[in-house]
Amino acid sequence: MTDPVAAAQASSGFRQLALCWFRRKDYEQAKALMEDADRLYDDYDTWLKEGWAFEREMSDKGVRTVRIRFDEQSFLLFCATHAMPRDGVARAEWAAYEAIRRVTPPARR
């Protein structure tokens, strides 16, 4: 999936990364949906700690992160529409898509 916004950001030197961000109350159910559940952390607290560490690492590299709160229905629809397995690649692509969608005004008809 080619991301025109990422290409434009790369050419301008602006770097931003959208992260699929889970809430505590949703983590176990979201994990159960994933085809790569074995690659996710066993519990939310560990996932959260690693998420914060990843954000700090990206910040140190000059990359701004944007948290996109996981939404089960939106994620499942995205996977079905794009014929993607429910895995880490899909989570990253979905988060990027949502970040762009949220800042792009709807087209006029």
Primary descriptors:
single chain, 109 residues, mainly alpha, two-stranded parallel sheet, globular
| H and E string | HEHHEHH
Radius of gyration: 15 Å
Low-pLDDT runs of 5+ residues are 1-12
Distance between the termini: 26 Å
Measured as a percent range, the helix fraction is 55-70%
Average pLDDT for all residues: 87
**What does the oligomeric state look like here?**
single chain
Protein architecture, described:
The chain is mainly alpha-helical. The chain has five helices and two strands; from the N terminus they run αβααβαα. It has helices at 4-12, 24-33, 44-60, 72-81, 88-103; strands spanning 16-21, 64-69. The chain has a two-stranded parallel ribbon. Residues 1-12 have low confidence and may be disordered.
